[in-house]
């Protein structure tokens, strides 16, 4: 009976036994996992676009090769995550339809433009840095396929973060123009990176259940705080500043207090009114249409050989 199944499910979660695709799970658990994993996958795919803008404009061949490797990694992350989501009985086509129709979200951060080469550094350091903060705990998520996909993704994320920081470090040792470019990118990417962690806990409809089911191990605000604490130290190495005059060490909480995040901006971006939302979605839809002949050829071949 369902009660026995749900007892078994709750026992597994509380005893840290992974839930696997063939296990019984509450419908809402399945639904929230499909929601989170598919949107995570969409974020990886859309996340390739801002940086792709600089692959042909990288300042050296070495930088071009590193950026190319990073963007290819993001594509791979997307495919791992779509595969993890498929184990929950949703098809790849359904997920793509949800992205293209606007029914599914992707991370707000990818709706901002990459205006200079320093943006590639700021994205690596801040966006991939925030992603690591958020994704390391997901390696311990209660759903097996998601947790295991995260282990591989986190290893690559660390390379993404390091190469981004190194781009900024190089610029911070350059001439005044390069220093200004570095600071400008940090100023533009700092606040949107804090928004990546999601709304404040008291405005997060999913956090409570996700914590109970051990999908999430920390709340949005807890991870955001950890991220701020780390970045305040790292930005000193760059000799740069973070664009928040309210940053102040708080001995009681052993962390930095920081300024107010512009949640109106966050919700506007989620509604599709960010600087690049239309462009990003149009690019994804065009890629899907342009790839139709390859999918059709592969299907035709499959039918021929089977
Ligand atoms: N961008 C877009 N939507 C966001 C968002 C953001 N930054 N933060 C929250 N939301 C959405 C949520 O999806 C939810 O909407 P939904 O119910 O329609 O899905 C709503 O806002 C309320 O947020 P909640 O906090 O209640 O939702 P969650 O509990 O799902 O928490 C999350 C949001 C922290 C993003 C969580 O979904 C998560 O940890 N996802 C996995 C990690 C992820 O997706 N990261 C995105 C970046 S991927 C990346 O950076 C790639 C790297 O290689 C660069």
Automatic annotation (TrEMBL):
EC number: 1.14.13.149
InterPro entries recorded: Aromatic_CoA_ox/epox, Ferritin-like, Ferritin-like_SF, PaaA, PaaA_PaaC
Record keywords, A-Z: Oxidoreductase
GO molecular function: phenylacetyl-CoA 1,2-epoxidase activity
Pfam families: PaaA_PaaC
Top enzyme class: oxidoreductase
PANTHER family named in the record: 1,2-PHENYLACETYL-COA EPOXIDASE, SUBUNIT A, PHENYLACETIC ACID DEGRADATION PROTEIN PAA
Protein name: 1,2-phenylacetyl-CoA epoxidase subunit A
């Amino acid at each position: 009976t369902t009660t026995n199944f749900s007892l078994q499910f709750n026992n597994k979660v509380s005893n840290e036994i992974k839930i696997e695709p063939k296990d019984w799970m509450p419908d809402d658990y399945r639904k929230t996992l499909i929601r989170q994993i598919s949107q995570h996958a969409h974020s990886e795919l859309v996340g390739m676009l801002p940086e792709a803008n600089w692959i042909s404009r990288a300042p050296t061949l070495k930088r071009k090769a590193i950026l190319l490797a990073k963007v290819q990694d993001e594509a791979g992350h997307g495919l791992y995550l779509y595969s993890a989501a498929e184990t929950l009985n949703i098809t790849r086509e359904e997920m793509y339809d949800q992205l293209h129709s606007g029914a599914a979200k992707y991370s707000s951060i990818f709706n901002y433009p990459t205006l200079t080469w320093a943006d590639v550094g700021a994205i690596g350091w801040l966006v991939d840095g925030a992603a690591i903060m958020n994704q390391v705990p997901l390696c311990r998520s209660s759903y097996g396929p998601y947790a295991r996909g995260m282990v591989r993704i986190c290893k690559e994320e660390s390379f993404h973060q390091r190469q981004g920081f190194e781009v900024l470090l190089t610029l911070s040792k350059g001439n005044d123009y390069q220093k200004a470019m570095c600071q400008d990118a940090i100023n533009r990417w700092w606040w949107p990176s804090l928004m990546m962690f999601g709304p404040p806990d008291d405005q997060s409809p999913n956090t409570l259940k996700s914590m109970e089911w051990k999908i999430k191990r920390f709340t949005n605000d807890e991870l955001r705080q950890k991220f701020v604490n780390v970045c305040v130290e790292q930005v000193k190495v760059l000799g740069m500043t973070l664009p928040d005059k309210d940053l102040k060490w708080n001995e009681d909480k052993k962390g930095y207090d920081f300024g107010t995040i512009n949640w109106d901006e966050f919700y506007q971006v989620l509604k599709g009114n960010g600087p690049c939302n239309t462009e990003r979605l149009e690019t994804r839809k065009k890629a899907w249409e342009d790839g139709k002949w390859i999918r059709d050829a592969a299907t035709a071949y499959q039918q021929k050989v089977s």
